[in-house]
Amino acid sequence: MVTETRPEKVAGAAEHPAGGGAQPGVSVIIPAYNAAGTLRRAVNSVFSQHHPVLELIIVDDASSDDTPDLIRTMDHPKLRYIRLARNGGVSNARNQGIEAAKGELIAFLDADDEWLPNKISLQMNEFLSRKNISLVSCDSYDIAPSGEVMGLHSSERAPAAGARAWVTLLKYAFITTSTALIPKQYLSITGGFDSNLRVAEDQDLWIRLARLGEVAFVNEPLVLKHFVPASLSIGGPAHDLLTYLL
Question: What is the pTM (predicted TM-score) of this model?
């Protein structure tokens, strides 16, 4: 069961400039599970963008902490809140957000990450620069639990762009979820995230998207990727890591 509370009337998505219309609207999706400690920071970074977003959809994956109460204190006309009755995992939460989104472009942000103010504007410029782009990414700073900047994400995994970026994605994941900006039509074609995957669900989707068009990459760090002790990004059960490799 999916319950959306405080629904807002948001203007419909605009036509792609290549077709002679206005710039496409951007829907931002934040999946949140027991994220009361970091969610406000993420939300503030969305509404601080130089390029205004069409809407921000927070999908609460049946949190048991103060996340629902925190969201209800956030009074913004572009904020939409979807509360899931049962915890279904981050892929399911993101897919619920995709289904509800009104924008032509979808941007994902994890509840413990944040964007720098020019993230959407620079990615939008890249998206509008040519046709057949199925995914726009960017670099990010990796942030330790202490708050220390560990370095650029690209320093360990060099990014790739163009029509054959999927070949590099088969070798390693250079795209973090909070950097992705994707046309909704391509997400509809792929079916979104595979909720059966416990890890690497993002890399799996990036590969499928990269096969449909070109991957564009903004070679600037526009995201702060915060690592937390329980994150699968820095370690997890051995069987999950084996699944990742396979």
Answer: 0.86
Q: How many Cα atoms within 13 Å fall on the side-chain side of residue 30?
A: 31
Residue 129 burial (10 A CB sphere; 0-12, 13-18, 19+): exposed
**Residue 186 corresponds to which amino acid?**
Y
Half-sphere exposure of 78 (CA within 13 A, CB side): 19
User: Alpha helix locations (H) across the chain?
Assistant: 39-47, 67-72, 90-100, 119-128, 165-171, 184-190, 201-210, 238-245
CB 195, CB 95: distance < 8 Å? yes
Q: Give the DSSP letter string of 160-194.
A: --BTTHHHHHHH-----GGG-EEEHHHHHHHTS--
pLDDT in tens, 1-38: 444 443 333 233 333 444 446 899 999 999 999 999 99
Please list the residues that pair with 105 across neighbouring strands.
26, 183
Residue 89 token pair: 């995992």
**In the block, residue with structure tokens 């009074």:** 75
Nearest to 24, CA basis, from 109, 106, 138: 106
